[in-house]
Design brief:
298 residues; mainly alpha; elongated
Length: 298
């Protein structure tokens, strides 16, 4: 675990207590005007990004050594869309204004978010906690949000790259035209990445061991695959059931992604999907701040 420990130790113990912050405050050499404030803000942002990047590089190294996680994250999402395509060819999609491509592509994005981001990060957070890595990282200059962001960044980038690859493949193989509303697809994908990372941290808070981390993500994954429109589009479900499924965490994400290619989502439904996704993200972030565990469960 040396690779993961390294990002949390660069500052040592001297910079906070006796470093340059105290000297600037007493001598006044740094100035107090807008220019000095802007420079301080840029330096703080740069330092924060540097710490997150260093932790992300270490986490990427460790992630590459976990063959089981790599198989589940990289290959399973590439296979599952094939089963969706087989089922979609037997559905009456034309009546709902859909095609095989506009069903398979959002499903492929959903599988990537669930396997490459959500499920993988639950294991990452739990294993790092049980090995006391998270506890040691908190003793350095890394803030709590930076630790979570740095740990989640490699899996999130993997999921993003996989989504882009699957989008290109679906466009070529299923004859999908260029999306008429690409901004909706981009918004849905970005919200999905942040939401799945936050939900992974919440799930990890209630997971005791690395072995159980293979099981605890399953309820949300199954509910999302069945009810968020991955296997069966919500347009084909009864209205009452579809209204309930619209409130699931991943449903607004897939709705926005699909709307990017159909261009048929009214403004009211677009705002509703955005509001639902943002609400779930805010709720997940609150839960992480309130219940995330940094030390092993006893």
């Amino acid at each position: 675990m040396n690779e993961t420990e390294a990002p949390g130790r660069p500052a040592g113990t001297g910079t906070r207590g006796t470093g340059t912050r105290g000297t600037r405050g007493t001598t006044g050499s740094a100035g107090t005007g807008p220019r000095a404030s802007a420079g301080t803000g840029r330096a703080a942002a740069s330092t924060s990004l540097g710490r997150i990047g260093a932790l992300a590089r270490a986490e990427l190294t460790l992630l590459g050594r976990s063959k089981g996680t790599l198989v589940a994250a990289l290959f399973v999402p590439l296979v599952l869309p094939l089963s969706v395509r087989s089922a979609a060819t037997k559905m009456d999609l034309a009546e709902a204004g859909l095609s095989v491509g506009t069903v398979v592509l959002p499903a492929a994005v959903g599988f990537s978010l669930l396997f490459a981001v959500y499920s993988a990060l639950v294991g990452v957070f739990v294993v790092r906690r049980e090995e006391l890595v998270l506890k040691r990282l908190r003793t350095g200059e890394l803030r709590d949000a930076e630790i979570i962001a740095g740990s989640a960044l490699p899996a999130s980038l993997t999921g993003l790259a996989q989504c882009l690859l699957l989008t290109a493949a679906c466009s070529l193989l299923l004859d999908l035209p260029a999306p008429p509303a690409p901004h909706l697809a981009v918004a849905g994908l970005l919200l999905g990445l942040v939401l799945c990372a936050a939900l992974a941290a919440v799930t990890a808070s209630h997971t005791r061991t690395g072995e159980s981390a293979q099981v605890t993500p399953m309820p949300l994954m199954i509910v999302s695959m069945m009810g968020s429109g991955m296997f069966v589009p919500l347009e084909l479900l009864p209205d009452r059931l579809a209204s309930v499924c619209e409130l699931l965490p991943l449903t607004p994400v897939l709705t926005l992604v699909r709307a990017g290619w159909t261009g048929a989502l009214p403004a009211g439904e677009t705002l509703a999907a955005l509001a639902t996704a943002v609400a779930w993200t805010a709720l997940a972030v609150f839960a992480v701040r309130r219940w995330f565990r940094w030390e092993p469960r006893r």
